[in-house]
Amino acid sequence: MESILSKLDIYTKQWAATLTEDDIAKLLQVVYKLPGLLETLRTGTAATIGKTGEIKFADICKKLPSNYQIQDTSKCGKKGDFIITYSNAGIVKRCLIDIKNYSTTVPKKEIDKFYEDMTFGSYDSGLILSYNTKFVGIAEHIHVEELCLPIGKTSVMYLVSSDEELILQCIELIINKSIIQHSIDINSSRIESLIENVNCSLTNSADVRRMLSDLQTNISKNIQKCQETLISHEFYIKKAIKEMSACTINLQKADVDRNTEDSKKPIHKNDQPPPLPPFIPRKKSPKKCITPIILTAPVESSIILPVEKDIATQKILEKDYATQKILEKDYATQKILEKDYATQKILEKDRQVFMELVELPWNNIVYLSDDKLVCEVTSSNMILRVSALKTKTAIIMDFLKEVQIPEADLALLIHKVTNGDSFVCALNIHLLTFDKKYMNSY
User: Fold this and answer.
1) Rounded Cα–Cα distance for residues 146 and 155 (Å)
2) Where would you tag: which of 27, 35, 282, 337 has the fewest CB atoms within 10 A of its CB?
3) Which residue range forms the structural domain that includes residue 165?
4) Would you say 152 and 143 are in contact if contact means Cβ atoms under 8 Å apart?
5) Distance in angstroms (rounded) separating the CA atoms of residues 280 and 290
6) Residue 152: which region, alpha, beta or left (left: phi > 0; alpha: psi -120 to 50)?
7) Cα-flanking dihedrals φ and ψ of residue 150, to 5°?
C-alpha cells in the first residue's frame, strides 16, 4: 500500500490514506464497470439520434399519395427502417428504406448491412437516405446503381439531403424506375441528366456556402484591422498636434521674454557717453570771456514699470494653462475611444465585469491594439493583461511584490499557473473582488 501511495500527488495521497478496505473494493468495482457504462451511454445516445431521424422521415412520408403505404420496420431484424409499398392497377412494388443521421461520413459497414437486408427480403428497389453527410466512396448527393440480387437486377438509390420535397421526389422516382424496368423500355437519359444536374447544383451550393463563410471571416478580420489602423493614425495625428502646439508656445514665450527684457533694460550711468571737453572759442577780444558749456548725454525718459512685466507674464501663463486644458481634453477623449474599442472586443457576457475592472484605482491603464491582448492595467502590487478569446475572456495576472494570499481566496478563482509563474484566470466577479483586496496590499 505504501508503494502505491508514494506514486500519488500530495492531495490524492491524503485522500487515499483515509480509505478503508471496503472503500477500495467499491472503487475497484466501479472502475471495472465504467467502460460498460460508457458504452451503454454512447449506444443510447446513437439510438436517440437515429430515432429522431426515423420520426422525421415518417412525417415526410405523410405527404406521399394515398397509394403509397409506409410500414415502420426499425424494430424488426433484416428489414431496414421502413418499407414503402406502392399499389396501382394491380401493380405492387416494395421499396426498402434505411435512414442515417450521422455527423460524419456514413461508413462502408452501414452500406454492406443495407445490401444484406436487400438480399434477405424480396424488394423491387431500395433507398438509403443520409440527412447530413455523404456515403464513403460516393461523391454525388444522388447516386443510383443496379444490384444483382436473387430476384434479378434491383435499383438502389443513395440520397444525401434533408429537403422534404427532394426526398419525396426521390422515393417516387426509385419506385417508378422499378415499374418501368418491368413494363416498357424507355430512354432514361433525361432522368439521368436531371440527376446529374441536381448533383452538380448540390456540390456547387456547398462550395459557395464555404466560400461565403470564408469571405465573411475575412471581411470581419479586415474591418478589425482597418479600425485598429484608423485609431493608430488618429493617435499619431493628435500626438503631432500636441508637439506642434508645445513648440509654438515655447517660441512665443521666448520672443515675448526677449522683447520684454530689451524694452525694460535700464540705462546705467556707466553707459552714458563721457562729457565733452570744455569748448574755448578763439580769442577775438580780450575783453570777453565765454563761459565753457559741458554737454551731457540725454537720459532715457520711458521706463516699463514692474507692474507691466507682471501683466505680460500673467497673460503668457493664462495662455499656457488654456492650451494645457485643450491637450488634456484631447487626451481624455482618446482614452474614451480606446476604452470603447477595447470593450467591443470583449465577449458580451463579460463586458460589464470588464468595465468594472478598468474603473478600479489602477496606477496605469494601457489599451493595446493586439488581436487578443486588449488591455494592460498596473497597480503598486500587480499587473493584469486582459486577453479577448473567442469563447472566454482570460486574465494573465502577475504579482510585482511578494504577497501572502490565503488558499481560500485563490480557490475562488478559476485559474492555472503557467511556467513563468503567471496566474491565468477567468474574468468574473470573484476576480474583481480579489483585485480590490490585493491590488495595493503588501
Assistant:
1) 5
2) 282
3) 51-186
4) no
5) 7
6) left
7) -55, -30
Q: Name the residue type at position 53.
A: G
Query: Per-residue pLDDT tens for 345-385?
Result: 888 888 999 999 999 999 989 888 666 788 899 998 889 99
pTM above 0.85, yes or no: no
Contacts of 294 (CB under 8 A, 6+ apart): 275, 276, 278
Number of structural domains, the chain? 3
Domain boundary among 318, 344, 370: 344
pLDDT tens per residue, range 159-192:
999 899 999 999 999 988 888 765 444 455 556 6
The answer on 397 and 325 residing in a single domain is no
Whether residues 245 and 369 share a domain: the answer is: no
d(CA 317, CA 257): 12
Q: What is the dihedral of CA 186, 190, 195, 200, to 10 degrees?
A: 160
Asked if residue 335 is part of any domain, the answer here is yes
Q: Which of 149, 198, 142 is nearest to 178 (CA)?
A: 149
384 and 373 Cβ atoms separated by less than 8 Å: no
Residue with cell 457576457: 349
| Helix extents (H) in 147-294 | 164-182, 189-263
Spatial CA neighbour of 61 closest among 158, 171, 179: 171
Which grid coordinates are listed for 354? 470588464
Name the phi and psi angles at 246, rounded to 5: -65, -40
pLDDT at 254: 66
